[in-house]
Amino acid sequence: MAPSAVEEWFDGQPPQRQRAWLIAVTPPRLRIPADLALTVPVHYREMWLRVTYLGFGDTTVSWFAAGPLAHLLIVRRPDLMGPQHRRPVDSAPGHRNGSGPASSHLAPDSAAGPAGYWRMANRALEAVRSRLNRTAAGQVWKRLLDVGFINSSLQFAAVFTIGFIPFLVVVAAALGPDRSRDVLIRTGFSARAGHDVTMLFTHGRAAPASMSVLALVLAVLGGSAIAHMLQSWYATIFQAEVHDWKATARRIEWLAGVFGYIALQIVVVRTIRPPGGQLGAAGAQFVLALAFWWWSLHCLLAGQIPWRRLFVAGLATAGCCTALAFYIAYVASTSIVANDAKYGPIGVVMTLITAEIGLGVALQLGAAIGATAAHAHYTHPDR
Which residues contact 298 (CB under 8 A, 6 or more apart)? Predict the structure, then answer.
């Protein structure tokens, strides 16, 4: 496109819009607000502007000055060129070379006081944000924001408390309090912390049958709610859809798998720990966690995503859960013992809820890392 055509279009714009264009295009940052970019005729837009699409499958765009329009705007910046090149902003189309009053010249951003520096800071922040959005960390963060990971983790902790403590009550009623303590120790709690947690619902007296039945009902309802929540997270992060009876059937299947996973974890770790020691037991737990979360992703997504694309998500989730187990073993366990001595049962519950919030974050983070890695690998297999 000839420069004269760009000048004719620009000089035909209202003075306020010309000023807005000149302020927007400030080297080295050349990002253009969408409301200005859309004023360029659609048949010239691709020639005069460079468009960058952000995100996966959405319509979010960023506009950047390029070509003859950028050259014209930079030349007309009075704070960048000498007096002989300065042009009045409100000059009419037929008087391009005329000289206007001093007030019609565009002042530099730095002369605008705090407002100018604020605009420059906003532009710098937008540039950094635009670059980060293209990185792997930016894409992981975007997926976490899509699922609302902060609010989701708080909801997960509430639901997990409703289902997990009744589950321990059922285990204690059916197999004895020692088995409940074993379940807690397998999650990373120390023996003393596990004892303090089990003391929330066992006091050396046999619980009435009605209490055990109520605990069983709450455990089933809480487990069903957790399964539904995880399924919703995974569907959002992996951009999949699971509906109707398939979704319900997969949640029931996953709940059965959870009980099998807990039982297998207790048996395998007890078998390996004497000959293999702590390191062997930790390795066995990690392998079991990897297999379980890899299968969980495939199960709750109803097989819509191939196994090979879910492996990194399963591995990342197992890694995040292992990091959480270290936190529980070395921070939360000590906190539970101290809070139980200082505040009683309420101190134990508050620390337990903190660990549950961490579990919710770990599950979402692992899935987001895996989805980002799978998208990058299968979109750009040569990288």
Answer: 305, 307, 310
- For residue 238, give every residue at least 6 positions away whose Cβ sits within 8 Å of its Cβ, in sequence order, or none: 301, 304, 305, 367, 371
Q: Quick one: tokens of 109? A: 């951003």
Cβ 130 vs Cβ 52: under 8 Å: yes
Q: State pLDDT tens for residues 328-349.
A: 888 888 888 888 888 888 888 8
pTM flag (> 0.70): no
Each domain of the chain, given as residue ranges in start order, spans 3-135, 147-379
DSSP string of 170-211? HHHHHH-HHHHHHHHHHTT--HHHHHHHHTTT-SSSPPPHHH
How is residue 354 written in tokens? 């903190």
Q: Is the pLDDT of residue 104 over 50?
A: no
> What is d(CA 119, CA 220) in angstroms, rounded to the nearest whole number?
55
Measured distance CA(37)–CA(21) in Å, rounded:
9
Helices 3-11 + 68-75 axis angle, to 10:
60
Going from the C-alpha of 77 to that of each of 22, 94, 241, the distances in angstroms are 7, 20, 51
Which of 17, 28, 240, 61 lies closest to 143, judged by CA? 240
